[in-house]
Amino acid sequence: MRDDGAPIILCVGPTHKSASLAARERFALVGPAGRELVAELIEHPDILEAVALATCNRSELHLAVTDEGRTLPVIVAAFARLADADPSELSTMLEVRVDAEAVQHLMLTAAGVESVVIGEPQIQGQLVLALESAQAAGTCGPLLHRLFRAALKAGKQVRTDTGIAEGHASVGSVAAELVARRLGGLGDRRDVVLGAGKMGTLAVRSLTARGATEIMVANRSAARAARIAEQCSVDVTDFAGLDEQLVTCDAVVASTNAPHAVLTVEHLRPIIAQRNGRDLVLVDLAVPRDIEPGVGELPGCHLFDLDDLEHVVAETLHARASVLAEATVIVDAAAAAFAAWRREQEATPAIIAMRSAAEQIRSEEFARFARRMAHLAPEDRSRIEQLTRSITNRMLHTPTEHLRSRASGDELATPDPWLAAVEQLLGPGT
Q1: Which of 56, 232, 249, 301 is flagged as catalytic?
Q2: Residue 56 catalytic?
């Protein structure tokens, strides 16, 4: 616990800034392994709440704990088991943020500031999914629920009030730009998109926006492929028809949710042999990766993954410095509001106890006096009781507001003597 007795907020995990794509694949908090890890951690007596956030750029655990020193080694050990690594190997890969830093990081993440593609909108949906999944699993409590909602609100305000979403606003759009550059344009090129989920749909739309006219979407699910065909006016195939498309296409953008590589060296080698030396641009947007890294060594194959996209994005960062500054101002204000809310919660038990004690006295005295009001009509007795409640509330209003302002003040870094005095006056249990 902190000095004020409140839980500590932790954020632990690798991001694209601390770990390579190959390393992040090992830490992916997705599927049964991710759920089991969170379920295991929440059983620890010092871990009160936990939410797992898994995206292409990060595998983070957001937690409310009672003791940082006791829980951090447990969390690191859990990540080590997930990655099949020794805990000592993780010192440079896992980023650890505590309280204010953890809060600001989540809000910047929700705003798209911490993404490879600054301002990308997918992160908002990913935060909602992480929160809903934790609530369904029973691992998210009131503190992290409030934090995630505050982060989502701040992220939405950043997108509304700044130009952060302009330009390359999604991984799919950056991938399309990379393909267009490598091929010298898309007008007469044939493109294959693997996966018909949100990322695949964004890739299709981004390719179309840059002039692509021949796009084939390949997906395991025929129903989902049919939906994207209807939405985007593209051709679709299942994976059984994929090889034929790979022989003739110019580019592949892969973004499935498969737990393993969809395109392997062994699979592609005979296909590449049929291409007669023609170049093939492949962009892998998935984590874990859809395309084996060795594919990039096959003749004519030019393979790019999420780490490579950072170089394309870096070219525009200097022009977006003012937008990032505006976003930071909004996030700083939201983080300060969240901190004030947390401090205000410290006064709540004392306020409740004070008002409960006053109400008990009021109720007892009114009941004692009730015999003297037996001659009054019920509505008159009701008016008198309401008057006693009003007097009690008026008397408690100023001390209540004073306790709240004391709690929300920036100077409150340790237990407040005013709150302690109220607890002492009202007795134990406040």
Answers
A1: 56
A2: yes
